Amino acid sequence: MSRRVGIMAVIVVLAIVLLCSLPFFDHLYGTFIIKVLNWQRHFHRQLVGNLVSFTQLPSMILAGALAFLSFGYGVFHAAGPGHGKAVITSYLATQQRHVGRGIALSMLAAFLQALVAIAAVSILVLGLGVATLRAVASTRYLELLSFGLVMVLGVWLMARAWRKLRRLRRLPTRYTGLEWQPASTAPSNALTMKGATPPLQGEVCHCCAGHHVDTTALGVSWRDDLLAVLAMGMRPCSGALLVLGVAALMGQWMIGVMAVLAMALGTGLTVSMLAILTVFARKLVLRVMVGKESQRQRWAETGCWVALAGGALLVFWGGTLAWTAWNTTAAGSILGFQMS
Amino acid sequence: MFESKSVILYRIFAGARLALLALSSVALLAGVCSPAIAHPHSWVDYRTEVHFNDSGEVIALREVWLMDPMYSMSLIEEMRNDGKEGQQRLAADVNRTLSKGHYLTHLFSGDTSGKELPIGKVKPPRVEQSGQRIIISFDVPLKKPLAVSAEHPFSYQVYDSTYYVEFLHDPDDIPIELVNAPQGCSAEVKSADPDPALVAKAAMIDQQGQAPDGLGRFFSDTGVVSCRGE
Fold this sequence. Notes:
Order of helices and strands of chain B: HEEHHEEEEEEEHE
Number of strands of chain B: 10
Number of domains of chain B: 2
Largest sheet of chain A: none
CATH architecture of the largest domain in chain B: Distorted Sandwich
Largest interface: A-B, 83 and 74 residues
Distance between the termini of chain A: 54 Å
Number of domains of chain A: 1
CATH class of the largest domain in chain B: Mainly Beta
Oligomer: heterodimer
Number of strands of chain A: 0
């Protein structure tokens, strides 16, 4: 116990130091943004130049270069702002997921984004004959839909965490009758039922999936993940839309599709990095904060509280983003300029 | 053995609260650090003319914007779709957008930290097609003619504050032309050298959508015209 108090003290001190050195972090983060934007500019201009040359004189070399440039653009574009990074970090930091799942979610979201862009341009521009820029402007509704889904996801996670938490808290008394026993000795039946799990590997995870069989737990989390991917991927990137629109205009539809898929690979890669970092950070924090994994009850409850907070955070993000998007009406203007 | 109920509950909740706090702050930080929609998707290469009156004062800034190839293509498509009136309709659209946005132009006496000079009435911009590029040009008159010296140069910036479109002086052209300028006047383009700390702050505020000026300003060129007295 005293050791944990010591660790907590260290963390508190570190937090204070961190807060006090925020200007330093500002500087670091600002430098990072400037660097990323520079790289992105570089790739974007090359990409546009390349696409224009290709439409004039198609060749395999140009197509290869285009794929490479699109990939690089995707990597740096995603390292910059946006692209559901707030959503994926909030989600992975508060819901128990393995690293592999985090990577899969990031990749799926990136490719869904590309597919939505391809579908939007096929339907609006190729199918209905809407001009590219108007098509870009009208995807604003998809953006709002995506932010709405983020909020739905948050509410859903919160509701479930709350339900499980209540069930969990009723648990000890039910099993020990009138006599209260310390949580550490009270059998949390979640674990007795999955007796096969080696003690060291036990994680909070099944907290919110409850004390049922493993398959249900899996099913539930799978549904969450689907919702998360939809929420992040519903919103096509306007960079991708412009590339597709111009490619379609020049009669090089397939090359546009290829470029956008390469872009998605780059985007997914960057977001995956962030996902990996988040999953590890979560594990670290939980280990330090909650202590030994033998205290199952405590782990389980903490997991639920964290999941609840995560849901609230997602509701907040969804609301903020939707509000911002709703208020920037001029984004749909012909020049794309957004007037403040 | 009879550890009291409240002690255990207290421990559980203390742990839960702390974990909650730590995680939400980590997530918030990570989230806040990823602003929403601030990255250029398009660019404009522009050149300017600074016009003087016969008393050697600056009276207007003429801007000629060359839209990037991809955006130009989309605009040309837009024009073609609208048929005969395409060009006029596009010009009207551009005029409406730009007049709402102060023509994205910011004029100063001295350096760009001072108060902006008021501008007069701007005539509707010209929109024309040159090859595969679209050119937009217009004059921004100053409300009052401005006397320019070495200590008080005339400076300007052109930027989209949301940084959706990046504006830079055309590297392949004479960036600033002085028209009817008295002897001893000269012009230069200063490239942006943004302060990382300010950029980070702007990026964070941008997320909340409350930024009076977003990222665009930090990456903007500055045109400076100064004159040595006779």
